[in-house]
Design a protein that fits this description.
Helices cover 28% and strands 15% of the residues. By secondary structure, it is an alpha/beta fold.
């Protein structure tokens, strides 16, 4: 996304990315940094906490693997979930990637560093195709918001994660500003857990429409409150009764996006919006 400000030479961008395995090289952070982004938004799977390193199985011929896979990645045969300690370790590993560190330290504007935001999906949640039954759902959410650098004192998203409600929120960027683009939750006024209905209704029209270059990024959690899949494979190919967001998140999202006066509203989640490479039984997680 590229936004060129009127009457200035300033061009800024919001970058989106996902599926960053700790077992692969990450050569793209410098490219992103060179493009001078205002924000980077994770679209899910910032780490692969359920992807354990291993050696070749007894009798297995490693020569049939691609060299990059042989060198960088070994997947476990056994499906298991990650503990909070391991999730924390993987986030720490990601934060130690040199080029990613430099991106976090880069000043987009004087006095303002790049904003890091994002949605969680199954692999950073801690288990493949994870859902509400994951025993560490609350701890996983807490670790993710810490990874983003969000604090409970200033972030409603971090507070909801700490309460076990899920990892969802909204950030609003004012691209008309040349000094500070990321609005606080209170300034944005979209989050009903920050600005209740009564307070929102009393806000002046001028306060709600300070700029016609506002961009609102909503991130949704499709794991922490997700209904488990049907156990029988053939039942997964039919439409099931269930939920992805949970009652509180649904109500929150309906209120928050209904308040938005942004010129652009972007909704980010781990749900696929295109046909997969091959047909599988995850029909309830694919939009055709």
């Amino acid at each position: 996304m590229v936004v060129t400000l009127e009457n200035t030479n300033v061009t800024s961008r919001i970058f989106f990315g996902s599926c960053s395995s700790q077992y692969y090289e990450q050569p793209f952070w410098n490219i992103i940094k060179e493009r001078n982004p205002t924000a980077f938004v994770w679209g899910g799977d910032a780490i692969y906490a359920d992807d354990q390193k291993r050696e070749a199985w007894p009798g297995e011929d490693p020569a049939r693997w691609l060299p990059s896979i042989l060198k960088d990645r070994r997947r476990s045969r056994r499906v298991a979930y990650a503990t909070p300690e391991y999730i924390r370790k993987m986030y720490s590993k990601q934060l130690q990637v040199k080029d990613y560190q430099q991106l976090l330290q880069e000043n987009v504007l004087a006095g303002e560093k790049i904003s890091i935001f994002g949605a969680i999906d199954d692999h950073d949640y801690g288990i493949n195709n994870g859902d509400v039954t994951f025993p560490y759902r609350r701890q996983s959410g807490i670790e993710f918001t810490k990874f983003l650098g969000l604090k409970k004192e200033s972030s409603a998203m971090a507070r909801r994660a700490a309460e076990g409600l899920g990892v969802y929120g909204v950030q609003v960027y004012d691209f008309s500003s040349t000094t500070r683009r990321l609005l606080t939750d209170d300034e944005a006024g979209l989050d009903p857990d920050v600005v209740p209905a009564q307070s929102f209704s009393h806000r002046s029209k001028d306060h709600d429409e300070t700029s016609n270059q506002l961009v609102a990024v909503f991130v949704l959690d499709v794991r922490s409150n997700k209904t488990p899949w049907a156990k029988r494979i053939h039942e997964r190919f039919t439409l099931q009764k269930g939920d992805f967001l949970g009652e509180h998140q649904w109500e929150w999202f309906e209120t928050a996006i209904g308040r938005s006066k942004a010129s652009v509203n972007i909704i980010v989640s781990g749900i696929q919006v295109h046909a997969p490479w091959f047909y599988d039984a995850n029909i309830i997680e694919n939009w055709r």
